[in-house]
Every structure is written in C-alpha cells, then in structure tokens.
Design brief:
By secondary structure, the protein is of the alpha+beta class. It contains 3 helices and 12 strands; from the N terminus they run ββββαββββαββββα. The protein has a 4-stranded antiparallel beta sheet.
C-alpha cells in the first residue's frame, strides 16, 4: 500500500503564479522579487512526489521554502523560519520513531479523523500543525501552516516512508546555514481584531530584520490599507492617542472636566514632550 495522502484530505495544491513570499508566507510586491536570493536547494523524490527544499534570503532574513510537486504537476508550499525548520527537523525524528513502532495498516483500527499522532509548532503569530495520518492510500505526515489573516492553510503531505530522508536533507541545510533567526527570542503577543460599523481593524505583531513591529490593517469589503509601527515608538504612539481621546472627551462634555469653582480642571503635564508630528530616524519600515 502506498504511503501517499489523498487529495480528499484537504491538502492545498496551487499553481505557482510568480509570487515571492517571506518566511511567514506574506506576498511581496513583484518589484521586490529581485531582492530575494536562493542560497541552496535540495530535491527529494519520494514515491510519486518531488519535494524541493530551498534556502532563501531576502531583506527579512533567511528561511526555507518547502515545495511539494505531485505526479500531476500541481504544487503546494509552506515557509519555515530557520528556527522553525530546526524544530520541525526534531519532530520528524519523533514522528519517524512512532511510525516505525506501528504495525501494518489496519482499516478497522484507524481513528475517525485518521490522525495517529499530532504536534503543533508556534512561530510569531503563525501555527504549524503536524499530523501523521492514515487513509485508504496509506500513512503520511500532513504539515499545515496558518495564514496571518485567515483563509485556507498552506499544506504539504509527506509520505511517511520518506520522513527520515526528508529529515536528513533538512539537517544538511541547517548545518550549512544555521538555525538562528536573530531578533526577538520570546513569544510575540497574539493578534487582535476590532470591528467598527462596516470596518474591521486588525492588530498583528511581527518581526523582521529591523526588529519587532505592529501592523494595523483597516479592511472593508473592497478596500485594505495598513501601517506598521516599530516597537520603539509604541509608548509614544499610545500617549498621542490617549491625549487625543482626552481632548475629545473634554470637547464632548466640557462640564464634566470643570473643577468645583467652575474653572476648567488642570491636567497633569505629560512626561513626554507634546509634539503633533512624530519623526523617527532611519528609513521607513518595510511594507509587510
């Protein structure tokens, strides 16, 4: 019996459209594609599938693109930061050991969802789900990557018999290029969502080679725009918003802010200088 996941398992297979993506799966503008370098690549033929492991580098750092090409030529791909690739490599060893301990496939002893073993990896605001599954075609490892703003997960399916070969190829690349992403080492806060009338606002925390940032996106049915705010100015950004909120509260309800004698209440001076426009050294933050 062949250890290949079937298409009815929800595996995403998409044609390439010349898009360049970062380690988190974000699309770059076509004008930025020339800034991406391919540092190394490995190709694996596992049963009827080919897998390409490409180490790439762009202005946000290094990452590994894993592309699966099925027998019909259709492709699926996921993106792994170098540290995530190292964690995935370690999970592959554990999954392979578990797979080796299983007996022959038994259709009468398969869980309802087909899952034999599962793990989850977390990187910034993205999750990677690893599921060793079994169906009528055999056993396979499905790796799915969540997207920042919802939508279908990006997925690849690795035949279980090829997990060791895949792990060894990944290990070779990590030995050559390392597993350090640089930057912030802790867990970033979860994204937040705010709906106002017919608008949706999304707050997402991420990082690149310039540091940690907050992306604030305004989304309507046919419109989307976003700004990025570097972590170093979050406090001042908050102070400016708080100052505007205070001023508008006084404008809407001036009596509420008067003292006992009827004179306007005095506000404590701000610890920060009151500037209408904030400027920051260096070039503008990159478009996320």
């Amino acid at each position: 019996m062949s250890d290949i996941g079937s298409g009815d398992e929800g595996i995403s297979s998409q044609k390439y459209h010349g898009q360049v993506m970062d380690a988190g799966g974000n699309n770059f503008d076509s004008g930025q594609q020339a800034q991406e370098q391919e540092l190394a690549t490995k190709m694996l033929q596992i049963q009827s599938k080919r897998f390409y492991l490409d180490v790439k580098q762009n202005r946000r750092g290094r990452f590994i693109k894993v592309a699966e090409i099925g027998a019909d030529g259709r492709r699926s791909q996921i993106f792994l930061a170098m540290s995530t690739a190292a964690e995935f490599r370690d999970h592959l060893s554990a999954f392979s050991d578990f797979y080796s301990s299983l007996g022959p496939p038994n259709p009468d002893n398969v869980p309802d969802d087909g899952k034999l073993k599962s793990e989850m990896m977390l990187k910034d605001n993205r999750r990677y789900y690893l599921d060793l599954k079994e169906n009528s075609r055999g056993r396979f490892l499905r790796v799915s990557q969540t997207q920042t703003r919802g939508g279908p997960r990006a997925q690849v399916a690795l035949p279980a018999q090829g997990m060791i070969e895949f792990r060894d190829a990944l290990t070779d690349l990590l030995d050559d290029f390392g597993s350090d992403d640089g930057g912030f080492k802790g867990e970033l806060p979860e994204g937040r969502h705010l709906r106002v009338d017919n608008k949706n606002f999304y707050f997402d925390i991420g990082q690149n080679n310039r540091g940690v940032y907050m992306k604030v996106s305004e989304v309507k049915s046919n419109f989307r725009t976003a700004i990025t705010v570097p972590e170093k100015c979050w406090t001042r950004f908050r102070d400016i918003l708080a100052d505007y909120c205070d001023k508008m509260n006084r404008a809407h309800d001036p009596d509420h802010h008067q003292g006992a004698s009827g004179a306007p209440a005095q506000r404590a001076p701000s610890a920060q200088p009151n500037r209408d426009v904030e400027s920051f050294a260096g070039s503008a933050p990159p478009r996320i």
